[in-house]
Write a structure and sequence with these properties.
Keywords: Membrane, Transmembrane, Transmembrane helix. The chain is α/β, with parallel strands linked by helices. 51% of the residues lie in helices and 9% in strands.
Length: 268
């Protein structure tokens, strides 16, 4: 019951505070002031909206906020000769489109599949698990796991050797439900594959569940040298700002609710 309440509240609150929604909300507020005769207030609100759009267009604020997340753990970590298990978190799937078009549809996080497939082939004797249900309040009938199974088949992987967890709705449930399925033992070596910016929160969850993992970040949005230059890219910068805000807000929410032990997790 508590996890369901967290899921629904997190979706509702995030829908209200996400940067792109706030831009539209304040623009609408400005127009309401204008048509109600409060022209001075309208000018101030609309001026702030335009200024925010200019700042987002010129300065890659999202990239700046993503950089510490993506650099928290090393990319291409040196892995031991023996690995007991490989975990991939869902989140790269467009489930409704997959169901409607009868073929796998993926988003910008599709690099997770490449990284997971690489490790599956490198460690064929390890336990391979994909964890992902549906993270959307609607269309719960088609899960990330359904889409993932089709992708793995198209990639030529043996899906009979992959454990599919299809009930989790967020990162915490990814770890919790996956642990229930595979029962990791003390001393085993597990590798976790997910988007680089999502790695800190994911590692925090697995640490909280007493399941140590080696982070394997993929799907980067920043440069390894951390160089950031101004430009003119409103849509791209806004998209990265929303992504960064999602992760930083998620880190705070998970820490406050006890789903991670630290605000900015590191290796266990």
């Amino acid at each position: 019951m508590t996890d369901s309440l967290f899921f629904w509240l997190s979706k509702l609150i995030w829908m209200i505070i996400r940067p792109d929604f706030l831009l539209v909300a304040f623009a609408v507020m400005g127009m309401i002031f204008w048509f109600s005769g409060a022209v001075k207030k309208a000018k101030w609100v609309l001026a702030c909206v335009v200024l925010a759009m200019i700042v987002i267009t010129v300065f890659p604020l999202g990239t700046i906020l993503l950089a510490p997340l993506e650099h928290r753990f090393p990319t291409n970590p040196i892995l031991p000769e023996k690995v007991d298990g490989i975990i991939m978190l869902g989140g790269a799937e467009k489930n409704l489109l997959t169901k409607m078009w009868h073929q796998p549809e993926l988003n910008d996080a599709a690099d997770r599949y490449i990284g997971f497939a690489r490790l599956v082939r490198a460690y064929p004797d390890a336990v391979h698990i994909f964890t992902g249900g549906s993270g959307t309040p609607t269309h719960q009938e088609w899960s990330d796991a359904n889409t993932a199974r089709q992708v793995f088949m198209d990639m030529g992987l043996d899906t009979s050797s992959i454990v599919f967890e299809n009930q989790s709705r967020n990162t915490y449930e990814n770890g919790l439900f996956a642990k229930t399925l595979v029962h990791p033992e003390t001393g085993q070596i597990w590798v976790l594959v997910t988007t680089a910016a999502h790695i800190p929160r994911s590692v925090g969850v697995f640490n909280r569940l007493d399941w140590p993992v080696i982070p394997y970040p993929v799907d980067h949005f920043t440069r390894p040298d951390r160089k950031i230059k101004p430009g003119l890219n409103f849509s791209g910068n806004l998209g990265r700002l929303v992504m960064a805000a999602t992760e930083w807000t998620g880190l705070a929410a998970y820490y406050i609710t006890g789903k991670t032990n630290t605000l900015f997790p590191s290796s266990q």
